[in-house]
Design a protein that fits this description.
By secondary structure, the chain is mainly alpha-helical. It has one domain. 91% of the residues lie in helices and 0% in strands. It has 4 helices and no strands.
């Protein structure tokens, strides 16, 4: 069980890192800005579901190994649910309404949450290893 929890948590950490630092950059490099934005907007709901499921499953497995790691992973799942169900909706509305200042503010919150989550996932990997 320890190995599975560690591998799932490492997958979460790596997947979040790649998505955050690679995916958008590649889309904007390969496609035009409009197409890249559409791709990102379409990918985020699925990405968030993947993070929620992976973090929750990792957290449940970690309960039997390290309760702090489990708590960190459950916090990632819950904060991602907020980002998906509340923050993403607000960001999309700001974009659709052309409210650039609100978009920038909300996007900044989203980025900060994501960076904290990546740090928490990394910490959980260390705790489980």
């Amino acid at each position: 069980m320890t190995t599975l929890a560690l591998l799932l948590t490492a997958l979460l950490f790596g997947g979040m890192t790649l998505f955050s630092f690679g995916f958008a950059a590649v889309l904007f490099k390969v496609f035009g800005a409009s197409e890249a934005r559409q791709g990102i907007r379409g990918a985020f709901p699925l990405y968030y579901l993947w993070v929620i499921a992976t973090a929750a499953l990792s957290g449940l497995l970690a309960l039997f190994i390290n309760t702090l790691a489990a708590g960190l992973l459950i916090a990632i799942a819950l904060s991602t649910a907020y980002a998906r169900q509340v923050l993403m909706v607000q960001i999309n509305a700001a974009t659709d309404n052309g409210n650039k200042s609100r978009f920038k503010s909300l996007h900044g919150v989203s980025v900060a949450i994501q960076l904290v989550q990546i740090g928490l996932a990394g910490w959980a990997v260390v705790l489980l290893s």
